[in-house]
Structure formats: structure tokens, C-alpha cells
Amino acid sequence: MPAPIRLRELIRTIRTARTQAEEREMIQKECAAIRSSFREEDNTYRCRNVAKLLYMHMLGYPAHFGQLECLKLIASQKFTDKRIGYLGAMLLLDERQDVHLLMTNCIKNDLNHSTQYVQGLALCTLGCMGSSEMCRDLAGEVEKLLKTSNSYLRKKAALCAVHVIRKVPELMEMFLPATKNLLSEKNHGVLHTSVVLLTEMCERSPDMLAHFRKNEKLVPQLVRILKNLIMSGYSPEHDVSGISDPFLQVRILRLLRILGKSDDDSSEAMNDILAQVATNTETSKNVGNAILYETVLTIMDIKSESGLRVLAINILGRFLLNNDKNIRYVALTSLLKTVQTDHNAVQRHRSTIVDCLKDLDVSIKRRAMELSFALVNGNNIRGMMKELLYFLDSCDPEFKADCASGVFLAAEKYAPSKRWHIDTIMRVLTTAGSYVRDDSVPNLIQLITNSVEMHAYTVQRLYKALLDDISQQPLVQVASWCIGEYGDLLVSGQCEEEEPIQVTEDEVLDVLEGLLVSNLSAAVTRGYSLTAIMKLSTRFSGVNRIKKVVSIYGSSIDVELQQRAVEYNALFKKYDHMRPALLERMPIMEKSASNGPTEIVQTNGETEPSVVDSKHPPPVSQPANQANDLLDLLGGNDVVPVIQTTVPTKPASAGGELLDLLGDLSLSGVPTPAPSVATSQPSFLLDGLSSQPLFNDIAAAAIPPMTAYNKNGLKIDFTFERANPNPNVAVITIHASNSTEADMTDFVFQAAVPKTFQLQLLSPSSNVVPALNQGTVTQVIRVLNPQKLRMRIKLTYTLKGSPVQDLAEVNNFPPQSWQ
Fold it and tell me: What is the mean pLDDT of the chain?
């Protein structure tokens, strides 16, 4: 049989292929020749054939038929054969294939070989693809090589030990004696791998971390090594862009960060060296920036001095001026993490951060926007809002929603005056009205209602905005509501804050009627407009025109609009004597701290008097078929269904997924019929109103809080109270917080309990959980619990555009909550 072609010739031939098909033909032809050679047990050219097979594997072609040939090469006594054999084993084998166990004995023999290079090959292979079984069998040999005086073998043994610890953590103590002398080695390769090994041990075992802190005195040794690296002169072996061994410096800084976290003594010991690294490292090259970034992370994670933290933030501030976009992004991300703890230090770089809003890179703009909102306070609110509103005008559509939400939150928290607050929100609505959150309209209406002295000014501003643009639906809705409430102030020209405009009643009605017929108006906007026209019947003199408009929409194809018109017509005809009182101005709205209930929740088809103290419960607002479908899915035999007390923003079909939520709540008891839901609806919207209080006052009880859920940045805490006068009723308030960097929208909390309990789930305070723990969503649960409480919860929300759904079971309620 002729000698097979060399690897270099194969590469040259494959590169001459003009098409993919031609290349495949060459590869198939060569693979056939290699297979024939393997079948004939050709030992002379086995090494060459495996080398060519590895090249084909790197090109993406199958090469699994060469696995056993790799094992034969490993068993060979020639170093060249072993080298190719071990390389093939690392590329073609992994722990999922049983073939790799056949090489355990070969690796053990090679670890005890007389030649260091053969030992090095065995260590590299074990550290690359060794399974847990292989690691257990060969850990002793690795530990012996870790104590050898040969620096070439020690550095490879240290890396191999890292792999062994990852695969079999319980073997960690075996390597502890060998680590004592590793940091005294002068060879930088051994130092580097030793620091990697120590880092792995500290990260995986709190006991090891405490041992290295106290018994081994590891921090002083690392400080000494780092100081020698900084103060040493030029060394051609380790110099990178004028800095001595930056890779080792970065590794040492990471290990110091782990050792100094939450430890006063260790942090104190490393403060001085961190200051030296921060001040002596050259920043003109990227190598120096990498070391400075690791230094900043270490300073922020340990219990460092305040001056050192300011120095770290100033380094990040210099990073913001760098031309490299990656460095600027890293700086903004790091500042965003530290702004809560070192707010004043970050404030010094506010102008630089605001300048990043003008960057062309979208990721930098987003980070700069998030950091700018985090820097807003009562002292800089006017200047920061001016910059952010300018950014809102010119930014891409993908930023407008988040930017508008941030402006709303900041204005609500730090507004210097009500007029400024109203002007700011109106500016947002006129520039990005289509991107604001759904709750912005009621929030602005509440703000306007409570600002009594600003009513005339606000309605005049909104009327002008309505004349200019009716495409921004939230703006149109707020304007319609205000014109309906304060239209008489608009017509009378009582505005003192700015020059009043002359408007007639007919002009105002023309604008509102134009909204009703405009193609730009959404169904909700038309409802606002029709209601505004109806309210003006008690504020304007042209009642006949209003009656005519209302009667026209009594036959509208829009069911919501038709129902409103029919109701309003009934007011004109049957209840005209009540119309002025019903349509009078809204009173000042008080924003309650805790979210109160709005409706009665049905439990087992009827309201339980001992749980809910209400004589005339309002009807359930959900449609009958939707509620019945939900109850069928919940299964009345085992669980008590919970119907949300507010209409969700998403379609109600999502409630049907509660079947998974309650799937394995195995409970004993006699099956009961599926519960029914009261679906009666008053014939007239004004009927069924009740002024009865829904719940009695809640008396605080000494019940410790608990964390029911903490995953993917979402944390759900439960606090407990006892209701008066019935001590059997436990009142649970959930507090949902979000530690991620983006808001969690469309947040829905659902719960289910066994049938022996009765449960009410009240409406949440919001469906958006703010990012970075800047706020919480609260929701109240009332439980009649005669015995130990169990609960299954389901959480759904949207994070960065992706829907998230999770289930959890809560069984560790404090005994005081049910005893």
C-alpha cells in the first residue's frame, strides 16, 4: 500500500477546492484511505493519519472513527505518537463516551513517567477532559506532582488540580498541604496557576476561605507578590506593554477580592497595596486599564476605606473619557452598580455621564440613561430633567418607553413644584406619548386633580396641545378628562399663570366631537371624549347639542361607547334631577400607601362572612364564562380558586395556566362539587354602589416576615398580620422587588391553597416591578387558616421583552401565622 500523503499536502489540496462539494469529495476520499489504513493496523503511518483526521475534525467533518486509534497512540512508547494521541483524545473524546475510561491506566503510567514532557501531556489531558471517575482515580498522582520541585510540572499539576476540584469537590482537602509552598515559588507560571487553584478552592468552600484568611495568612503573601510586581524593573520575560506580568496581577486582584469580601482584617491588610496599584499603573495602554478595572472591582467589593472608594470611582470617571467604546461601557456598568453606595462620588462625574447620552453606540446610551436616572436627586432635578428630556426628543424609539417611565418616576419623587411636575409630564406626553406606560394617564389625572390652584393653567395647556396634535393617545385622554372636569375654567379665561386664551363653548365641543370621529382615536380615547362631553352638560349652557351627540352614539358599533351613550341618555331622561350631583367635579384623590381592595373575591362560590365583613359585595368584574373556565381548570375538589380582583392587562386566558400551578398539591378529603361563581351584573352602572367598608382594621401581630421566593433577580417577601375581630384570619402582604437592571412588566402573582382554607387575593399596587430595587409591588392576601398553611404560587412577568413564568411551593410559613 502506498504511503499516505502528509498533513501539509492534505491542507494544500483542500485549500485548492473551489466549491464546498469539491472539498467534501476530497475529504471523503481521504477518510476512506484513512479507514483502510486503520483496518490494516498500519502502525507506521497511524500518527500521520490521526493528525490528518484531527484537521478534518477542526473543519467540521466527522472524525469519531479515530477515537480508538488515539488510544493506541497514547499507549505507544514514542513521544511523537503520544503527543498526537493525547491531542486527539482531548479533541475527539469527552466524559460522555465510555471510551475515555480505557485511557485511565495509560494516563496513570504517564504521570509516573521519567520524562517531564510525557508527564505534562498526561496532566494536560486529564485537566482538559477527565471525568469524575478518572479524577478520583488519579488525584493522588496529581497531588504528588504538585509537590515536585520541577516548575514545569507544578504549573500543569496546579491547573489539573483545578479541574479535579471542579469535578470532585470533596477531594479539595487532599490538595491543601500542597498549597502551602506554592506562593513562595519564583516562577511566574507556577505563581499564576497557584493563584487560580487557590481562587477555585476559596470560591467553592467557605471553610477553605476561612482557613486561608486566618491560618495560612494568605493576604500578606499576595500583597507581597503584588508589590514586587509593581516595584520590579523591566523584565523581558514578563513585560507586556511596559507592565510586569499583568495576567498575574489580575489573578491576584481577583483572589484578594474574594478574601477581603465581608472581612475587616483582610480588607485592612490590602488597602495600601490597592492604592499603590491604582496610582502607579499606566493608563495609556489597554493592559493598564485591565489591571485598573480589576482594582476598582476589588475596592468596591471589600470593606475598603472611603478615600479608596472615591479613588476607584475617579478611575471609572477617567474610563468614561476613553476612546474605546468597550472601556466606556464597562465604566458605566460599574458606576451603575456603585451609585447606591457611593452616590456623592459618582455625582462628581455627572456631566461626563450625561455626555454619554449622545454616544452613537446604543448599549452605551442605554447604560448612560439608566445611570443618569440613578443620579437624579432634589438638588439637580431641573438640570438632569432638561438633559433627559432633550435625550427623549432625539433618541431612538427603543429608548423612549424606558426614558419616559424614568422621567415620570423621577418627577414624582423630586418635583420642586406642582407646576414644574405638570409641565414635565406634559412635555413627555407631547414628545413620546405613544410610548408611555398604561398607568401614566391615571397618575397624571390624579396629580392634576390634587393641584387645585393649577386647574385653569393645566386645562389651558392641554387644550392648546390638543389643537396641535391628537396622535398621542395618552395626551388626548388626559386632555379630554381635564376639559370635561374644568371646561368652565377654560371658557371663562381664569388662568393666572399665563395669558388666558379666548375659547367659546362651541369650539371646545367641536374639538371633543372631532376626537370621537377621528381615525387616530383609539376606543379608550373615544370613551374619554364622550364622558368629557357628558360632564360639560353641567358646566356649559348648550345642553341640547350635548344630548344630540350622546344620542347618536347610542347605536355605535363600539359596544363600550354604545353602553356609555345609553347610560348617559338614561341620565338625561330618567335621572335628570341627579345629573348635576353625579357629574360634579372629582374630589381630591388621596394616594393610599397600601393597596386597598376594590371587589369581593368569591371563595367556593360564595362570600364567607367570617373572612369578609361586607353586607353588599359588589359584583365580580370578570365575565362569567372566563371565571367558570378558570375554576374548571383549578379543580374544585382539591383547591380553593383565587380570582384576581382587578381586570388584568393581558387576556384572561393566561389564568387557565393555573392548571400547572396546582398540579401536584396532593391533599386528602372528600371531593366536593366544582364551585360556582356569582356572575350577576347590575342592570345600570349607577346601581350596586355600596359605601360599606370591605375589611375591618388590621391589628399588627408579632409574626416574623419570610422570603417566599428569590430567583432570577425577583424577590417575594411575605409579612404577616392578624385581622380584628377574627384572629383566625391571617393577612399576608407580599412585597415584590427586582434587583435586575430592567423593569419587570406585566407582573402577575397568583396563589392557590388546599380546599380546607379560604383565601382572598386583592389587587396589586402595580403590574411593573421597578429595576435595581427602586420600588416594590405590594399585594394583600387574606387567609382563613384553621391549620398549618401551605401555598403554591405562580409568577409571570416580562423581562427585556421576554416572557418569564415560574412556579414555587411555600411550606415554611412561621408557626405564629397559623397557630
Answer: 81
| Length reported for the chain | 819
Q: What is the pLDDT of residues 759-808, one digit of tens each?
A: 888 888 888 999 988 889 999 888 876 567 788 899 999 998 888 999 88
Is 311 in contact with 343 (CB distance < 8 Å)? no
Q: What is the pLDDT of residues 357-368, one digit of tens each?
A: 999 999 999 999
Name which residue leads in pLDDT, 620 or 24: 24
According to DSSP, residue 165 is labeled H
Q: Are 312 and 295 in contact (CB under 8 A)?
A: yes
Q: Exposed, middle or buried: residue 664 (CB in 10 Å: 0-12, 13-18, 19+)? A: exposed
- For the record, the C-alpha cell of 23 comes out as 472539498
Confidence of residue 678 (pLDDT cuts 50, 70, 90): very low
Q: Are 558 and 530 in contact (CB under 8 A)?
A: no
Q: Of 803, 767, 793, nearest to 707 (Cα)?
A: 793
Torsion angle, alpha carbons of 740, 745, 746, 749, to 10: 30
Q: How far is CA 525 from CA 324, 400, 481, 514, 596, in A?
A: 48, 21, 10, 12, 27
Cα–Cα distance, 738 to 672 (Å, whole number): 40
Does this model's pTM top 0.85? My answer is: no
Q: What is the DSSP string of 44-86?
A: SSHHHHHHHHHHHHHHT---GGGHHHHHHHHHSS-HHHHHHHH
CA distances from 609 to 451, 612, 617, 641, 697 (A): 40, 5, 11, 17, 15
Q: For residues 505 and 490, is the Cβ–Cβ distance under 8 A?
A: no
Task: Take residue 507 and report the three cell numbers written for it.
Answer: 369650539
- Residue 722: count other Cβ atoms within 10 Å of its Cβ: 18
- What is the per-residue pLDDT across 724-768, written as a single tens digit (0 to 9) for each? 656 678 888 999 999 998 899 999 999 888 877 888 888 888 889
Nearest C-alpha neighbor of 446 from the set 432, 425, 467? 425
CA distance 213 to 264: 11
pLDDT of residue 615: 35
Burial bucket for residue 341 (CB in 10 Å: 0-12, 13-18, 19+) = exposed
Rounded to the nearest 10 degrees, the angle between the axes of helix 151-167 and helix 188-204 is 20
- Quick check: 637 pLDDT over 80? no
C-alpha cell at 769: 416591578
Q: Measured between alpha carbons, how far is 306 from 49 in angstroms, rounded to an integer?
A: 63
**pLDDT (tens digit per residue) in 151-172:** 999 999 999 999 999 999 999 9
Q: Can you say whether the dihedral through the CA atoms of 406, 412, 414, 415 is positive or negative?
A: positive
DSSP state of 603: B
**Among candidate residues 30, 70, 21, the one with its CA nearest the CA of residue 46:** 70
Q: What tens digit of pLDDT does each residue of 665-675 get?
A: 433 333 333 33
Q: Are 349 and 320 in contact (CB under 8 A)?
A: yes
What is the rounded distance in angstroms from the CA atom of residue 95 to the CA atom of residue 683? Answer: 71
Q: What order do you get walking across the sheet with 744-754 strand by strand?
A: 639-640, 744-754, 791-799, 802-810
What does the pLDDT read at residue 541? 84
The crossing angle, in degrees rounded to 10, of helices 286-301 and 264-280 is 160
Torsion over CA of 320, 321, 323 and 327, rounded to 10 degrees?
Answer: -20
Which residue carries 482557613 as its cell?
211
603: which strand partners?
Answer: 606
CB-neighbour burial class of residue 529 (10 A; exposed 0-12, middle 13-18, buried 19+): buried
> What is the model's pLDDT at position 69?
87
> What CA–CA distances, in Å, run from 504 to 464, 508, 613?
14, 7, 50
Average pLDDT over residues 281-294: 88
